[in-house]
Amino acid sequence: MASSSEILESNLETAKNQEEKVDLKAELDDNGSLRSNGDYPTGEFEFKKPSAWKSFVVNLRLLTAFPWQRVRRGSVLNIKLRGKISDQVKSRFSSGLSLPQICENLIKAAYDPRISGVYLHIETLKCGWAKIEEIRRHILDFRKSGKFIVGYAPVWHEKEYYIGCACDELYAPPSAYFSLYGFKAQASFIGGVLEKVGVEPQIERIGKYKSMGDRITRKNISEEDREVLTTLVDNVYENWVNTVSQSKGKKKEDIESFINEGVYQIEKLKEDGWITDIKYDDEVTSILKKKLGISEKKKLPLVSYKKYSGVRKWRLGLTGGKHQIAVIRASGSISRTGGSFFEPKSGIVAEKFIEKIRKVKKSKRYKAVIIRIDSPGGEALASDLMWREICLLAESKPVIASMVDMAASGGYYMAMAAQTIVSENLTLTGSIGVVKLKFNFGKLHERIGFNNEIVSKGRFADLYAADRPFRPEEEKLFAESAHNTYKRFRDKAATSRSMSVDKMEEIAQGRVWTGKDAVSRGLVDAIGGFSRAVAIAKHKANIPHHKKVTLVELSKQSLSLPQILFRMMTSAIGVDGSTSSDGVQARMDGIMFEESSLPDPIFNLLKDYLSFA
Length: 613
Known about the structure:
Helix content: 25-40%
Number of helices: 23
Number of strands: 24
Shape: globular
Oligomer: single chain
CATH superfamily of the largest domain: 2-enoyl-CoA Hydratase, Chain A, domain 1
Largest sheet: 8 strands, mixed
Strand content: 15-25%
């Protein structure tokens, strides 16, 4: 097997050709999506009306379904979109919304003869724009079946409206909380706080756009940080205006004028065609009854999202492909080892992820692998170990990285090991940079009367002593270590993307890009969601596009009985096992632009050292 240096030299020789190839791939259509070409099929959903025989088989299977999987004919699937949405497949004992299950439910409902339509309740969502885009795409796909999908939104902003306007009809109550005022980015800085309490952060930052260090050391935003946030906000704004204008048949200028007008009256939304009508939930229910030809006195047959998630795809004839593609989902901050038996560590645990990768590599069942990444980064060592295993896997079978809301720093480190990278238009990615830091608590210790004595042997034994600043030789070693980490990251990114180091240096520097911008710079290959990743995986595995495949989820939550009982017990007494919160971040109207996998700022003060995030 070739060494890393040999691979790098080989790739550098073909860098010019590869850059030309990237430019060709980066051709975007009017919707901001990559045009289909021989390399990257679109994976666009095509609704095919079942044949008479297939309908007979499906109906026969539904008659023999278990009681908890039975659905009354003429039912309406009721999905309530609210709060956090995870990219993980949830178990029956887990709460919250799952993006894969939301999308699967809409696909199943399109083909299920028992489902007449969908009633979508939309409220404030806490997720990034990539998940919003995926849901919207599946709403439009569902409409291809000819069934209705009606939205009801009592509380909504730009994200919620982005989903709602994809429905056939959208209603809101007269007292709805809404705002369509535009987009903003907000960055918080704790440099002044640390100064007041007597804590000195010592930071080595590689990459002029790597802003996590700024959040800790500065009292205000830097020009580089402002440049990145401005670009991200511009991209979100442009995407929203373009999509909504197409959906509502309005001019972009009219959309922008409406936003800048600052509308606060719900009547204005109806008058200008932003919503279908002003109705309460019970009134919308009456409208749905009329659609179904049901008497007003009878109850509307609704089936909940949770119950419908238990309906198996095979009963609807939506499985059966002999070729299998493995799906490994990796969400959250990256760490190397897991937690306890009763309370496993959340996020991406490298040792568990690597175990899955190795099993897939050994198995001959899987023709290709899709790694679904939704991560702001984390531990450098863990990211590198996973990168290595993905590289080894890619030597034996096609590996496609499908990025969700965020694949930055360590998240991108994982993705770049795949042969093809797919992202949404507004996936936050890149951030190829390094931040190392140490906190000097000397002044704080002095103020509160705390003393910490160290006995050491070795020139750098107390390098990370928390009660004093670096000595000159220590500061030099600290900086060299950070530069070495960055160099490895940047060079591996260049190798993985078949790009010269100089070219990669131009687009690295710790800068975060949206998926749309990342495509044009060669960091991403194609724009799209999970379905496009599947289509590309089939293509790479030489599976005809019209052939069905079986997607095998290898990251399902599987809790043991003691763990289930433990969670039920802690939930009953109000114990929250979480020890971390959002960390140092910028917020973009619900987009989490996270530069650190550390816990909240108070807990950050206990950390002497941080590798790249």
